[in-house]
Amino acid sequence: GAVVSQHPSWVICKSGTSVKIECRSLDFQATTMFWYRQFPKQSLMLMATSNEGSKATYEQGVEKDKFLINHASLTLSTLTVTSAHPEDSSFYICSARTGSSYNSPLHFGNGTRLTVT
Amino acid sequence: RKEVEQDPGPFNVPEGATVAFNCTYSNSASQSFFWYRQDCRKEPKLLMSVYSSGNEDGRFTAQLNRASQYISLLIRDSKLSDSATYLCVVNRRGSQGNLIFGKGTKLSVKP
Question: Contact A103/B91, CB-based, under 8 Å?
Answer without folding.
Answer: yes
